[in-house]
Amino acid sequence: FVSVQFPGLADVSISQDIPVEGEITVPVGSHSPDEDYSTLDESVKDTIMRDLKAVGKKFVHVMYPRKSSALLRDWDLWGPLVLCVSLALMLQGGSADSKDDGGPQFAEVFVIIWFGAVVITLNSKLLGGTISFFQSLCVLGYCVMPLTVAMLVCRLVLLAGAGTVSFIIRLIVVGAMFAWSTLASTAFLADSQPPNRKALVVYPIFLFYFVISWMILTFTPQ
After folding, report:
1. Which helix (DSSP H) or strand (DSSP E) does residue 96 occupy?
2. Cα–Cα dist 151/96, whole Å
3. What is the pTM of this model?
4. Residues 135/80, Cβ–Cβ less than 8 Å
5. Which of 50, 57, 153, 158 is 20 to 30 A off residue 76, Cα-Cα?
6. Which is one Pfam family of this protein (predicted)?
Protein backbone atom coordinates (compact mmCIF):
# COMPACT_ATOMS: atom_id res chain seq x y z
CA PHE A 1 0.00 0.00 0.00
CA VAL A 2 2.83 2.36 0.89
CA SER A 3 4.67 1.59 -2.31
CA VAL A 4 1.55 2.24 -4.31
CA GLN A 5 0.52 5.47 -2.63
CA PHE A 6 4.01 6.83 -1.94
CA PRO A 7 6.53 5.21 -4.23
CA GLY A 8 9.41 7.25 -2.88
CA LEU A 9 9.04 5.85 0.61
CA ALA A 10 9.77 2.29 -0.40
CA ASP A 11 13.55 2.92 -0.36
CA VAL A 12 13.58 4.87 2.90
CA SER A 13 14.51 2.96 6.05
CA ILE A 14 14.99 4.09 9.63
CA SER A 15 17.99 2.73 11.44
CA GLN A 16 17.24 0.93 14.67
CA ASP A 17 20.35 2.50 16.27
CA ILE A 18 18.92 6.01 16.20
CA PRO A 19 17.00 6.60 19.43
CA VAL A 20 13.70 8.39 19.10
CA GLU A 21 13.10 10.28 22.31
CA GLY A 22 11.35 13.35 23.53
CA GLU A 23 8.12 14.57 25.05
CA ILE A 24 5.27 16.50 23.62
CA THR A 25 4.44 19.43 25.85
CA VAL A 26 2.76 22.77 25.34
CA PRO A 27 4.99 25.63 26.54
CA VAL A 28 3.26 27.66 29.18
CA GLY A 29 4.55 31.11 30.02
CA SER A 30 5.12 32.11 33.59
CA HIS A 31 2.19 33.85 35.21
CA SER A 32 2.66 36.76 37.52
CA PRO A 33 0.61 37.03 40.71
CA ASP A 34 -1.30 39.96 39.22
CA GLU A 35 -2.50 37.81 36.29
CA ASP A 36 -3.96 35.20 38.63
CA TYR A 37 -5.47 37.82 40.92
CA SER A 38 -9.22 38.19 40.67
CA THR A 39 -11.33 40.92 42.25
CA LEU A 40 -14.50 38.79 42.21
CA ASP A 41 -13.70 37.14 45.53
CA GLU A 42 -12.47 40.19 47.42
CA SER A 43 -14.59 41.92 50.03
CA VAL A 44 -16.30 45.27 49.54
CA LYS A 45 -13.89 46.84 52.02
CA ASP A 46 -10.87 45.66 50.03
CA THR A 47 -12.40 46.97 46.80
CA ILE A 48 -13.07 50.41 48.31
CA MET A 49 -9.60 50.62 49.86
CA ARG A 50 -7.98 49.60 46.59
CA ASP A 51 -9.88 52.28 44.67
CA LEU A 52 -9.08 54.92 47.30
CA LYS A 53 -5.38 54.08 47.13
CA ALA A 54 -5.48 54.36 43.33
CA VAL A 55 -7.17 57.78 43.54
CA GLY A 56 -4.68 58.92 46.18
CA LYS A 57 -1.72 57.92 44.00
CA LYS A 58 -3.13 59.99 41.14
CA PHE A 59 -3.46 63.00 43.45
CA VAL A 60 0.21 62.59 44.38
CA HIS A 61 1.18 62.54 40.71
CA VAL A 62 -0.70 65.80 40.17
CA MET A 63 0.95 67.45 43.18
CA TYR A 64 4.36 66.43 41.79
CA PRO A 65 3.77 66.71 38.04
CA ARG A 66 6.19 64.90 35.81
CA LYS A 67 6.01 62.97 32.57
CA SER A 68 4.36 59.78 33.73
CA SER A 69 1.83 57.31 32.40
CA ALA A 70 0.23 56.66 35.79
CA LEU A 71 -2.85 58.77 35.09
CA LEU A 72 -3.13 57.36 31.58
CA ARG A 73 -2.57 53.69 32.36
CA ASP A 74 -5.21 53.25 35.10
CA TRP A 75 -7.68 56.01 34.40
CA ASP A 76 -10.81 56.64 36.44
CA LEU A 77 -13.34 59.43 36.86
CA TRP A 78 -13.90 59.18 40.62
CA GLY A 79 -11.28 61.78 41.47
CA PRO A 80 -12.45 64.31 38.86
CA LEU A 81 -16.05 63.87 40.02
CA VAL A 82 -15.12 64.54 43.66
CA LEU A 83 -13.05 67.58 42.71
CA CYS A 84 -15.77 68.96 40.46
CA VAL A 85 -18.47 68.60 43.10
CA SER A 86 -16.23 70.05 45.83
CA LEU A 87 -15.32 73.07 43.71
CA ALA A 88 -18.94 73.64 42.69
CA LEU A 89 -20.08 73.47 46.30
CA MET A 90 -17.45 75.97 47.44
CA LEU A 91 -18.40 78.34 44.62
CA GLN A 92 -22.07 78.01 45.50
CA GLY A 93 -23.73 81.05 47.02
CA GLY A 94 -21.54 83.65 45.34
CA SER A 95 -24.41 85.72 43.97
CA ALA A 96 -25.21 89.07 45.50
CA ASP A 97 -28.92 88.27 45.32
CA SER A 98 -29.89 86.86 48.69
CA LYS A 99 -32.94 85.18 47.17
CA ASP A 100 -30.70 82.96 45.05
CA ASP A 101 -30.07 79.63 46.71
CA GLY A 102 -26.89 78.94 44.71
CA GLY A 103 -28.38 76.23 42.53
CA PRO A 104 -27.53 77.86 39.18
CA GLN A 105 -23.93 78.46 40.31
CA PHE A 106 -23.50 74.77 41.07
CA ALA A 107 -24.88 73.76 37.68
CA GLU A 108 -22.79 76.36 35.86
CA VAL A 109 -19.54 75.19 37.45
CA PHE A 110 -20.40 71.55 36.87
CA VAL A 111 -21.24 72.14 33.19
CA ILE A 112 -18.22 74.39 32.54
CA ILE A 113 -15.76 71.84 33.94
CA TRP A 114 -17.14 68.77 32.20
CA PHE A 115 -18.11 70.47 28.94
CA GLY A 116 -14.73 72.18 28.77
CA ALA A 117 -12.91 68.91 29.41
CA VAL A 118 -14.93 67.20 26.65
CA VAL A 119 -14.17 69.99 24.16
CA ILE A 120 -10.45 69.85 24.92
CA THR A 121 -10.48 66.06 24.57
CA LEU A 122 -12.23 66.21 21.20
CA ASN A 123 -9.79 68.89 20.05
CA SER A 124 -6.90 66.67 21.09
CA LYS A 125 -8.29 63.67 19.22
CA LEU A 126 -8.94 65.70 16.06
CA LEU A 127 -5.36 66.95 16.13
CA GLY A 128 -4.04 63.40 16.15
CA GLY A 129 -3.70 62.65 19.86
CA THR A 130 -2.86 59.07 20.78
CA ILE A 131 -4.67 58.82 24.13
CA SER A 132 -8.25 57.72 24.55
CA PHE A 133 -11.24 59.92 25.31
CA PHE A 134 -11.56 58.91 28.97
CA GLN A 135 -7.81 59.08 29.59
CA SER A 136 -7.84 62.74 28.60
CA LEU A 137 -10.89 63.43 30.80
CA CYS A 138 -9.11 61.73 33.70
CA VAL A 139 -5.99 63.90 33.37
CA LEU A 140 -7.91 67.17 32.94
CA GLY A 141 -10.19 66.34 35.85
CA TYR A 142 -7.42 65.39 38.27
CA CYS A 143 -5.46 68.51 37.38
CA VAL A 144 -8.32 70.64 38.72
CA MET A 145 -7.08 69.72 42.21
CA PRO A 146 -4.68 72.70 42.58
CA LEU A 147 -7.54 75.08 41.73
CA THR A 148 -9.77 73.32 44.25
CA VAL A 149 -7.09 73.92 46.88
CA ALA A 150 -6.93 77.56 45.75
CA MET A 151 -10.69 77.87 46.20
CA LEU A 152 -10.43 76.51 49.75
CA VAL A 153 -7.66 78.98 50.61
CA CYS A 154 -9.64 81.87 49.11
CA ARG A 155 -12.68 81.04 51.19
CA LEU A 156 -10.54 81.03 54.32
CA VAL A 157 -8.97 84.37 53.36
CA LEU A 158 -12.40 85.89 52.70
CA LEU A 159 -13.40 85.06 56.25
CA ALA A 160 -10.98 87.77 57.40
CA GLY A 161 -12.41 90.37 55.03
CA ALA A 162 -12.60 91.35 51.37
CA GLY A 163 -10.16 94.27 51.23
CA THR A 164 -7.18 94.99 49.00
CA VAL A 165 -4.81 92.78 50.96
CA SER A 166 -7.27 89.91 50.70
CA PHE A 167 -7.51 90.36 46.94
CA ILE A 168 -3.72 90.39 46.51
CA ILE A 169 -3.37 87.18 48.53
CA ARG A 170 -6.11 85.49 46.53
CA LEU A 171 -4.57 86.70 43.26
CA ILE A 172 -1.20 85.20 44.15
CA VAL A 173 -2.71 81.90 45.30
CA VAL A 174 -5.02 81.53 42.30
CA GLY A 175 -2.26 82.52 39.87
CA ALA A 176 0.13 79.96 41.31
CA MET A 177 -2.45 77.17 41.29
CA PHE A 178 -3.53 78.09 37.76
CA ALA A 179 0.06 77.67 36.57
CA TRP A 180 0.30 74.40 38.51
CA SER A 181 -2.82 72.96 36.90
CA THR A 182 -1.75 74.00 33.41
CA LEU A 183 1.79 72.62 33.76
CA ALA A 184 0.58 69.38 35.34
CA SER A 185 -1.94 68.67 32.59
CA THR A 186 0.50 69.47 29.79
CA ALA A 187 3.16 67.27 31.42
CA PHE A 188 0.82 64.28 31.11
CA LEU A 189 -0.69 65.13 27.73
CA ALA A 190 2.28 66.60 25.85
CA ASP A 191 3.79 63.31 24.71
CA SER A 192 0.50 62.11 23.27
CA GLN A 193 0.33 64.91 20.69
CA PRO A 194 2.19 65.41 17.39
CA PRO A 195 5.25 67.67 17.94
CA ASN A 196 4.04 70.29 15.44
CA ARG A 197 0.58 70.57 17.03
CA LYS A 198 1.32 70.80 20.74
CA ALA A 199 0.61 74.54 20.84
CA LEU A 200 -2.88 73.94 19.42
CA VAL A 201 -3.57 71.54 22.28
CA VAL A 202 -2.01 73.59 25.09
CA TYR A 203 -3.93 76.78 24.22
CA PRO A 204 -7.44 75.33 24.94
CA ILE A 205 -6.09 73.82 28.17
CA PHE A 206 -4.81 77.29 29.13
CA LEU A 207 -8.24 78.81 28.49
CA PHE A 208 -10.01 76.00 30.35
CA TYR A 209 -8.08 76.50 33.59
CA PHE A 210 -8.09 80.28 33.15
CA VAL A 211 -11.91 80.37 33.16
CA ILE A 212 -12.03 78.25 36.32
CA SER A 213 -9.36 80.45 37.94
CA TRP A 214 -11.31 83.59 37.06
CA MET A 215 -14.44 82.18 38.66
CA ILE A 216 -12.46 81.46 41.84
CA LEU A 217 -10.77 84.86 41.92
CA THR A 218 -14.00 86.82 41.37
CA PHE A 219 -15.95 84.78 43.91
CA THR A 220 -17.55 86.91 46.62
CA PRO A 221 -19.76 85.27 49.27
CA GLN A 222 -23.19 86.56 50.04
Report:
1. none
2. 18
3. 0.70
4. no
5. 153
6. Yip1
